[in-house]
Amino acid sequence: MAGEPDPNEKTRSDTSTSPDGRSLPPDVLEIDPAYEALGHPRRRYLCYTLLEDTEWSLTELATKIAAWENDIPEHEVSEREREAVSVSLYHAHVPKLVDEGVIAFDDAMETITPAEHTEQVLTALEGIGASVDANQEAHARSEMHDEGN
Amino acid sequence: MTKEISGGTMSDDDPPSEANTHWSQVAQRHYRPDGKRELTTVIVYAIAEAEDRSPGEIKSPPLYESVDVPAIEAAFFGPDVTENSRQGVGTVEFQYTGYLVKVRSDGWVQVYEPAEADLS
After folding, report:
1. Whole-angstrom Cα distance, residue A62 to residue A37?
2. Which residue, A30, A71, B19, B33, has fewest beta-carbon neighbours within 10 Å?
3. Which residues 24-63 of chain B have a CB within 8 Å of chain A?
4. Along the 149 residues of chain A, how does pLDDT read in single tens digits?
5. B 55-114 residues inside an 8 A Cβ radius of A
6. Mind giving me the DSSP string for B2-53?
7. Which of B4, B31, B36, B49 to mutate to test the interface with A (most CBs of A within 10 A)?
8. Which pTM was predicted?
9. What are the residue boundaries of the Halobacterial output domain, all occurrences included (chain B) (predicted)?
10. For B21-74, what is each residue's pLDDT tens digit?
């Protein structure tokens, strides 16, 4: 893959100043991982789940994404559909997001957790989410309000 | 503890197809660009069928480590510069855990396994 992460990246401590005077960590200004992460609808759904900043199992994620994509409650997701989404996450989208430093994946436990570039992707989602895909934004937001705890 | 998915773990034990390797087709699936199943999913399901296992059991390495599926998707099934479907005809081949996989521009995904050479 092009664009290997710069090994010195994490050791940099300088901050840049945005036009409105707020300081941003330099990672936030590196936009490639955000574009790569958000360049596929299924990966955008996956990134929305990271708004909750928690740990997900592959199965939980596949169920949630299948429910969102089909606009049905999670308990109505069929085993067949869950498996199809899970396979695509495992063989395509999860390793892609690991490469981009957007998530970390534990092979043995099959759990997904945030990584060093999660924050910038979520920042990008906050900015463009609603206009990129109103349905996705609505799904993700409504669910978070429902669960609101 | 988390760790990143390790790099390519393709076995070096079986060398890539030599000129005299015979392959026999053991599974095929059809990919529809306008369907819900992603090309990655269709390929993994075809491999699962070849191995007679459930798709969820096909694990390492992730297909992502072996072949750039989005590039195949874009080349064969993505819009061209005029936003029409591509009319090209072709096949991409790659090997995955000992199987030879062919993705054709008409959407057929075919899985082959090495066959005993016919020495008779």
Report:
1. 17
2. B19
3. 36-38, 40-41, 44-45, 54-56, 58-60, 62-63
4. 444 555 444 444 444 444 555 565 555 556 777 888 888 889 988 988 887 768 999 999 999 999 999 999 999 999 999 999 999 999 999 999 999 999 999 999 999 999 988 888 888 877 765 555 667 777 777 766 665 44
5. 55-56, 58-60, 62-65, 69-70
6. --PPPS----SSSPSPPTT-EEEEEEEEE--TTSSS-HHHHHHHHHHHHHTS
7. B4
8. 0.75
9. 36-112
10. 799 999 999 999 888 899 999 999 999 999 999 999 999 899 999 999 999 998
**Residue A110 dihedral angles phi and psi, to the nearest 5°:** 55, 50
Each residue's pLDDT tens digit, A110-129: 999 999 888 888 888 777 65
Query: Hey, what amino acid is at A121?
Result: V
Give chain A positions within 8 Å (CB) of B4. Answer: 98, 104-105
ipTM over 0.95: no
**Residue B1 tokens, joined:** 């503890």
